[in-house]
Every structure is written in structure tokens, then in C-alpha cells.
Specification:
Blueprint: E1 2-8, E2 16-19, E3 30-35, E4 38-51, E5 63-66, H1 69-96, E6 101-107, E7 113-119, H2 127-137, E8 140-145, H3 148-155, H4 166-169, H5 179-184, H6 191-194, H7 209-216, E9 225-228, E10 231-239, E11 244-249, E12 254-258
Parallel strand pairs: 7-8
Antiparallel strand pairs: 1-2, 1-4, 3-4, 3-5, 6-7, 9-10, 10-11, 11-12
Length: about 260
């Protein structure tokens, strides 16, 4: 039986499966693997698991070798080169007066390509910029325009909850988020309170949405008349997690009761 491991190339990146080959690997091991972009250095994040090659579809690429001191030194050189390339690119962007926000630069492990990540409100003609970068750096250049959420994921930060941003900590892909999710959870609809660092609706609005929707199916809808031990009234609020509702009585008073306290007429 063959074994595979899950490998990340960036702390906020996707986990890719690779065949262990002849290596005995464990989480946090640093390895060199062959990718479509050439050799890359990654970290084992998912320990060895057995798999059947026939059932996995496309054959998995194998781990090339374990990383050594020379590889770590190469990685440090790449990081220093990325900073220099970032500064030079910002200078060129200013000189060309381009409407783009450069926020990250990545150099391939073997050093034959730079990828520049940026955001922009529209399309950007960066052909002249690429010519300047190729002339200065002497390698292949790729300009990649990404969304504002991807920028937050790559840059990281701390959310209003005081924890590391979900997108940079563990989310591998973005799920659709709508204002309806905030309404369903009775959250404030103030944009400043339900928006993340990226300025979009917070990803965590999706986490409990299905639970709230399921719980509220068992509760009388807002505006419905119900009979309570204190008299008849209308439902004005839900507290789905505690399975309680707030009712405004006919005399103007408000009470909060458990759903099972509703008197059946």
C-alpha cells in the first residue's frame, strides 16, 4: 500500500497531496518536492496516510528529498531577494503612475521566476512594468491580480474577535457570504461590525448559519400571534441558541419565554 502526506508551501496556503515514496515523514518535516513550477520547498502538515493509486485518479508526485541546510540558506536568500524586488517594483509603479496596490512578492525556490501579487479596482496595463522588472531582475515575471480577500489571507492579521484571521489561519477556500446570514443570526447589520479586515462580510458568518436556520424552523416566526402563560402576544425576537422567544403582550409588556412554554390554543 502506498502512502501520501499533505504538504503546504505557505503557512496560509492550500494543502497538496504528495506520495511519500521511500521517505518516512512526519508533520513539520521540511521537504523538497517537484511541482509544475519546478522544485519547491514545503512543510508536511498532514502525516502519512495509506491510499490506493488506482482509486486516487491522477498519480501523485513524489517527495524529491528531505530539505537540508543548503536549502534553508537558499530559502533565506529568496526572502531577501523578495524584499528587494518588492521595493524596486513599488518604485516602478510610482514612476509609471499605475493604479495598483502591490502587497506581496514571491520568488520560486529555484530562483527562475518572481510572482508579484496586487489588487486593483480595474484592469491594469502592466506591460511596461514587466519589461522594467525583467531588465532589472533577469528572470521570468508573473503579475497576478487577486481579490481583496486573498490579500487579507496572504498578509494575515488579527480580527475583531482578537484571534488570527480565519482566512490566514486555516481556511483553504472562501465560501459565499451574504447579509442574510447576519440577519438569520440576529446580528447587527452595521457594516463596521460584520465586516472583516478585507472590508467584506466576515467569513465566520457562515459557521453557525445552518445551525441557526435549523433551530429557527422549530420556532414561531416573528410577527406570529402566540398564547403565553401571561396572555396573548406577538413574537418580536428569537434567541435560537437558548431556544427562547421574546413576546410583546397585548397590554404592551414584553416577556421572554422558552418555546415549549407556548400555550397551545
Amino acid at each position: 500500500m502506498n502512502k501520501k502526506v499533505g504538504i503546504k508551501f505557505k503557512s496560509t496556503g492550500k494543502v497538496y497531496d504528495f506520495s511519500c515514496g521511500v521517505f518516512v515523514l512526519a508533520p513539520d518535516d521540511h521537504v523538497i518536492v517537484e511541482t509544475e513550477q519546478g522544485l519547491g520547498m514545503g512543510t508536511v502538515t498532514v502525516g502519512p496516510q495509506e491510499y490506493e493509486e488506482k482509486l486516487s485518479g491522477k498519480p501523485l508526485k513524489k517527495v524529491y528529498r528531505l530539505a537540508n541546510e543548503k536549502d534553508f540558506r537558499q530559502q533565506e536568500k529568496n526572502l531577501a531577494a523578495q524584499k528587494e524586488a518588492h521595493s524596486y517594483c513599488l518604485k516602478c509603479i510610482k514612476e509609471l503612475d499605475l493604479k495598483m496596490n502591490l502587497f506581496s512578492v514571491e520568488k520560486s525556490f529555484d530562483g527562475n521566476k518572481y510572482t508579484f501579487f496586487f489588487t486593483s479596482e480595474g484592469r491594469v496595463d502592466f506591460r511596461q512594468l514587466v519589461k522594467m522588472l525583467v531588465k532589472h531582475l533577469g528572470v521570468r515575471i508573473e503579475m497576478r491580480q487577486v481579490g481583496i480577500r486573498n490579500q487579507a489571507k496572504m498578509c494575515g492579521g488579527v480580527g475583531r474577535c482578537g484571534r488570527e484571521l480565519c482566512c490566514s489561519a486555516f481556511l483553504e477556500k472562501f465560501e459565499p457570504v451574504s447579509i442574510r446570514m447576519a440577519k438569520e443570526q440576529s446580528l447587527s447589520l452595521n457594516p463596521t461590525k460584520i465586516s472583516g479586515q478585507c472590508g467584506r462580510l466576515m467569513c465566520c458568518l457562515t459557521y453557525e448559519f445552518d445551525t441557526y436556520r435549523r433551530l429557527k424552523k422549530e420556532m414561531p416566526k416573528i410577527g406570529k400571534s402566540v398564547m403565553t402563560p401571561d396572555g396573548k402576544g406577538k413574537v418580536i425576537r428569537h434567541s435560537a441558541i437558548s431556544n427562547r422567544i421574546t413576546v410583546r403582550l397585548e397590554d404592551g409588556g414584553e416577556i421572554e419565554i422558552a418555546v415549549d412554554q407556548i400555550v397551545k390554543e
